[in-house]
Design a protein that fits this description.
Blueprint (H helix, E strand, L loop, with lengths): L1 E5 L13 H11 L3 E4 L29 H11 L4 E4 L2 E2 L5 H14 L4 E6 L4 H7 L6 H17 L3 E4 L4 E5 L13 E3 L4 H10 L2 E2 L2 E4 L8 H18 L8 E2 L1 E5 L5 H15 L3 E4 L8 H17 L1
Parallel strand pairs: 1-2, 1-13, 2-3, 3-5, 4-5, 5-8, 8-9, 9-11, 10-12, 12-13
Antiparallel strand pairs: 6-7
Helix pairs in contact: 1-2, 1-9, 2-3, 3-5, 6-7, 7-8, 8-9
């Protein structure tokens, strides 16, 4: 299994952006296979929708660094690791701006970019970017079309109901050919249909340890993933070429053994070949986060 880790982008780690390059370089030296960013904009005081089924927003979300800048910093500091987004909230961005940023990171990293996109869940964040949240699904579909055009054609032109790219010369294309792989995060039925129809892979999540009364996340993934691949096949696509990268979200009281056991079980029981660990609730500074990286890798690879 390839094992990655989230870059120091949120919470206490975000207050020390000078450590991003060192974290990325040393995580690569320790044997990490990938490094990841997410996309949080703000933490509402009185949220309409809380995080992960709760009524609140975690205090760690009050500090968030720009994902593209963090990823570009990591690209310049590393040579081998893949660089992923899980996820960029695509409907927030005009596709031309998103394509330019992602292309730049892919070129900086010599083709190591994994593009993970989603549609977000916070009404206040949509309000802040002046995009109607009710349009997020349609905007995501158009964004996927526009990105494909930007990356594979020249001149580029796209015209949709929400986004337009006038016919333009775009000579810079990603190092990944024909384009970087695009993964989608999804849970609702309509979003899962989009995954089957359009994505190169799916981005599921496992919360560790599972909340009281919640189903075992690895068992649930092992049960659901075959159905996702069947849906891919019904769309006339090759299920063997369809990927899944698991995001492991440890809570503040998760142990290294909890994390490592989840990684090992995900490979053995669900066939997951690539996963990454988010350290937002565990890392207080870069040194502590790197210590966790080392211990998780050692424990998971010894099993």
């Amino acid at each position: 299994m390839r094992i990655g880790f989230a870059l120091p982008q949120f919470g206490p780690l975000a207050h020390h952006p000078e450590d991003i390059a060192r974290f990325a370089r040393q995580a690569e030296e320790l044997g990490a296979d990938s490094l990841w960013v997410g996309d949080r904009l703000l933490a509402p005081v009185d949220p309409i929708v809380g995080y992960a089924g709760t009524d609140v927003i975690p205090p760690e979300f009050r500090a968030a660094l720009d994902p593209f800048t963090v990823l570009a910093t990591a690209a310049a500091a590393t040579e081998r690791v893949e660089l992923g987004t899980d996820v960029i909230n695509a409907p927030w961005y005009p596709p031309a701006l998103l394509a330019r940023s992602l292309t730049t990171v892919d070129l900086l990293s010599a083709g190591r970019l994994l593009v993970g996109l989603g549609s977000g869940w916070s009404p206040e964040e949509y309000e802040a970017v002046d995009v109607p949240m009710a349009e997020r699904g349609r905007r995501l579909d158009e964004c996927l079309d526009a990105l494909d055009a930007w990356w594979t054609r020249n001149p580029v032109e796209y015209r949709g109901d929400h986004w337009t790219v006038p016919a333009s010369h775009v000579d810079l294309k990603p190092a990944s050919r024909p384009r970087p792989p695009v993964y989608l995060a999804a849970f609702a039925p309509a979003a899962m249909r989009r995954v089957a129809r359009r994505a190169d892979g799916w981005l599921p999540i496992a919360v560790v340890p599972a909340a009281s009364g919640a189903p075992d996340p690895v068992a649930a993934l092992a049960e659901r993933l075959p159905g996702v691949r069947e849906a891919v096949e019904r769309e006339g696509r090759d299920p063997a070429a369809f990927d899944a990268i698991l995001r492991v979200n440890p809570s503040a009281d998760a142990s290294v053994d909890d994390i490592a056991t989840t990684l090992v079980r995900a490979e053995r029981e669900a066939g997951i070949q690539h996963a990454f660990v988010d350290l937002i609730y565990l890392g207080k500074d870069a040194d502590q986060a790197l210590d966790l990286v080392q211990r998780v890798l050692e424990r998971a690879r010894a099993s």
